[in-house]
Write a structure and sequence with these properties.
The protein is mainly alpha-helical and 387 residues long. The protein is built from 17 helices and no strands. The termini are close together.
């Protein structure tokens, strides 16, 4: 069953990117774009295709990029990172400059520098990639800068140090979001907040049990907390997703970043159950064919979730695990006799991963039409429209 966006939604999809461009040029205040868009749409204003000058040869190098039809294949998941090479140049300058400042002075100097740069590059110029870079920089600087402080505060309770670091990152990134409205900052603040609360719950459980070796003897309890963290982050991401079904606001970008955290957390929760009895580690030479098959099944399940939600983070998060498990299955299946050279088996694994990724990328929307079209109508109304 295929859903078509209403005329209102189509006009809104075309108008909002124009208003975002106007905000980056300083013509419109960033927080006013959504309200201005609703006002213009209510007055019947619409945006058509870009106007371009005639071209000499539609297939040659003289073709104007503005005259090329915009791709609508994957527009449902398009967080804006780069407006042009100017953004890349500025980002390189940020990274190099902040590294140099941290080395010459102290890591604490990176935080005020990031704030000053944020005023210029984010609030005034509305540059997306530098905004992401500054958010990551201020998060890392906060963690490194406060680590000695939290460690000195609890020398006998060093296992509580990660709680203090996560709480610091959460507060700093929340403040960064409050000032600059960067989706990554809100997502990072929420993820680190959830992590610190659940980590505290895990430590408190062991303290109240009176058994210092609780998690050594009952590792499933620790895995439970990891799974709880994964589900909380995933649930919060879904809340942002369902509130912006057509992916038109910053909520969609917040959900994008939170899915990037939730997907690997879900995968490695499942893998912790699969490899729970393996004392040599998750990725050891002792991995059995049964364990490898379960890992492949878990990755395929995440891919299915990604297709339903129209989120590719669930595909990319499990590629490494999928490749390793697939290689184990080939080895256990006797393919080492066919492919005597070890590098041949490795290249076959890489080829398989590439084919799977390309098949999903090319057939993403047809797969969504088949899978989502067979879901209950109530659930379909919450998911992004199938095109």
């Amino acid at each position: 069953m295929k859903f078509d966006l209403s005329d209102w939604e189509n006009r809104k999809r075309l108008l909002l990117p124009v208003l975002d461009d106007a905000a980056r040029e300083g013509l419109v205040q960033g927080d006013a774009t959504a309200r201005l868009g609703e006002f213009l749409l209510g007055r019947g204003v619409s945006v058509g295709a870009p106007v371009s000058a005639p071209v000499v040869d539609g297939s040659g190098l003289d073709t104007l990029r503005a005259s090329e039809p915009a791709s609508t294949v994957e527009e449902s998941e398009a967080p804006r990172f780069i407006r042009g090479f100017h953004d890349i140049l500025i980002t390189i300058g940020i990274i190099v400059g902040l590294l140099g400042l941290g080395g010459l002075a102290t890591v604490h100097a990176v935080i005020p520098a990031a704030i000053i740069l944020g005023e210029v590059l984010v609030r005034r110029q509305r540059l997306a990639l530098p905004a992401v870079t500054l958010t990551i920089a201020i998060g890392i600087a906060s963690a490194i800068g406060t680590f000695p402080i939290w460690e000195d505060m609890s020398p006998q309770l060093d296992e509580w140090t990660p709680v203090g670091i996560a709480a610091t990152i959460s507060v700093v990134t929340f403040l960064f979001y409050w000032r600059y409205k960067i989706p990554l900052a809100l997502a990072a603040g929420l993820v680190t907040l959830f992590a610190s609360v659940i980590y505290c719950a895990a430590l408190a459980t062991r303290v109240f049990s009176g058994d210092a070796t609780l998690y050594d003897r009952h590792p499933l309890i620790l895995v439970f907390f990891l799974g709880l963290f994964a589900l909380v982050v995933f649930g919060a991401a879904l809340k942002f997703d369902f509130a912006d079904r057509n992916r038109l606001t910053r909520r969609s970008d917040v959900a994008f970043w939170m899915h990037l955290a939730a997907a690997p957390a879900i995968l490695y929760t499942i893998m912790a159950h699969v490899y729970l009895g393996d004392k040599q580690g998750w990725f050891s030479a002792e991995t059995t064919a049964g364990q490898a098959a379960m890992v492949v099944g878990a990755v395929l399940l995440l891919m299915l979730i990604g297709i339903v939600l129209d989120r590719r983070a669930f595909v990319t998060s499990g590629l490494l695990s999928f490749g390793y498990a697939f290689k184990v299955l080939l080895t256990e299946g006797g393919f080492t006799k066919v492919f005597a050279a070890t590098d041949t088996l490795a290249f076959l694994t890489l080829l398989t991963i590439g084919v799977v990724v390309l098949a999903l990328g090319i057939g993403w929307q047809p797969l969504r039409r088949v899978i989502v079209g067979n879901l209950p109508d109530g659930l379909q109304k919450l998911l992004p429209a199938v095109r």
